[in-house]
Amino acid sequence: MSDTLIIIPVYSGASSTPRIVKPLDGTSSLVRTIEAALEDLPDARIVLTADDNAVKQQAAPYADRITIHDRTAESYTDALVDVLDAFPAEQIVVIEPTHPFRPRGLIRRTAENLAAREHLDSVVCVRQFDASLWRLDPDKTIQALGPGGDRRSSTYFQEVVGLALATRPELIREGRRLGDAVGFEVVDQFWALVDIRDDMSLAMAEMVADRFTEFRNSIA
To answer: Are the CB atoms for 158 and 129 separated by under 8 Å?
Structure first.
């Protein structure tokens, strides 16, 4: 998909940044993310936009296959727009290196899902779950989110944007994230939902890393 731009954003001020270069069974989350993009969409332009030297150094061996862009904007949206200004594309896919484990083909499916549906603003990865959820309102009252309260479970979808978000460039330029018409790529592998944003999830990622190849190859 040569009309697709993949952006991997990294900001040095994020608390998760030191973790993305930490080895997980010998391979960091950053490298795993780069390699997943190269495997899934080898014809797309892949841009790592970063302002952290350790991140750039770790990505340097891939410099002949990806573009390492100097990030100057602190804002997430502004950083994406800066990349878009330099590398225009019909659609973009944002993947975040805080997610080390992706099912094979997930990035490609997310991009193809959006490309095939002109009416959609974006396609986002989600996890599906059934639950009886309740909401605490500003006035401190508690309201059931689904019909029947605690007597019936409803189906919900939680965004896992960092795994892959395919969207239209004009949406990003408008400062919007998903738009109004949103498609889903459902991810149900527990290991794919692991991120490394805190020490607890990093410990989980370290356990998964040892068996990642086995888990990934077990998908029919």
So the answer is: yes
